[in-house]
Design goal:
The protein is mostly helical and 238 residues long. Helices cover 55% and strands 7% of the residues. It has a two-stranded antiparallel ribbon. A two-stranded antiparallel sheet has the order 3-4. The protein is elongated and about 75 Å long. The two termini are 45 Å apart.
């Protein structure tokens, strides 16, 4: 769906799709450029450094292509023979595949998804560990992230010399996210070590005595209302 200005209007909720594997979308995008055989798709992804941003199982590429063909998103476009090598089947994107590709990618760009990263899960559960131990563990994480950041800068520098920025923008985004996480961890650790974060006394007491702090018990007895129309008010249960 498009507006009068030509911009696509994307719904607030992403669709449930026949294929949910992001590798399938990646394959369609490459086949929208030109017809390829699965091995060429794999080589193109490697040359463009996409293994840093797309979870690629090169062994499953043939299965992904077969599933795309089954749903009518790609079709056989010809056969390629080079020298004494075996014939290779070339695949191209269909009209239905192009429409699905555009719609799917537009949803991914426009509609925020609840992805539940495991680090956020760990943060949600961290009071079960003592504050000092959490600070130490985050220091270990920060050291690992710093190495990842340096490595990714190297990758970005190398790819940037070979490819236009538009082809490495996702790697640039990854680097920014790592650096942002590093900055957040640094700030949070300062609150932990300086014992300035609210709730720190109850947190410490829990690990010193083994007893649930009264303030925590009160929280468990309250209903936290998350409905935006009720403006996030906290209410006691009836």
């Amino acid at each position: 769906m498009t507006s009068q200005s030509g911009a696509r209007v994307v719904g607030a909720v992403a669709k449930r799709r026949k294929l949910g594997n992001p590798l399938a979308l990646t394959v369609m995008v490459l086949l929208a450029e030109r017809s390829m055989h699965p091995y060429e798709i794999a080589q193109t992804l490697r040359r463009r450094g996409k293994e840093h941003s797309v979870k690629i199982n090169f062994g499953s590429l043939y299965t992904v292509v077969q599933n795309l063909e089954k749903h009518g998103y790609v079709e056989v476009a010809g056969v390629q023979r080079q020298g004494n090598r075996p014939e290779r089947t070339l695949y191209g994107i269909t009209g239905a595949g192009r429409a699905e590709m555009v719609d799917w990618l537009s949803d991914l760009l426009a509609v925020p998804a609840a992805e539940y990263p495991v680090f956020e899960t760990a943060l949600a559960l961290l009071p079960v560990l003592p504050p000092q131990e959490v600070a130490e563990l985050l220091e270990t994480r920060a050291a690992a992230l710093a190495i990842q950041s340096a490595a990714l800068r190297g990758v970005l520098g190398q790819l940037g010399e070979k490819l236009p920025r538009v082809f490495v923008i996702e790697t640039e985004y990854q680097l920014h996210m790592i650096d942002a996480q590093l900055e957040w961890i640094k700030s949070f650790r300062e609150e932990l070590t300086g014992e300035t974060i609210s709730g720190i006394e109850e947190w410490k007491s829990f690990h010193e005595t083994g007893a649930i702090p009264p303030d925590w018990q009160e929280l468990d007895e309250k209903e936290i209302v998350l409905d935006p129309e009720r403006k996030g008010r906290t209410q006691d249960p009836e």
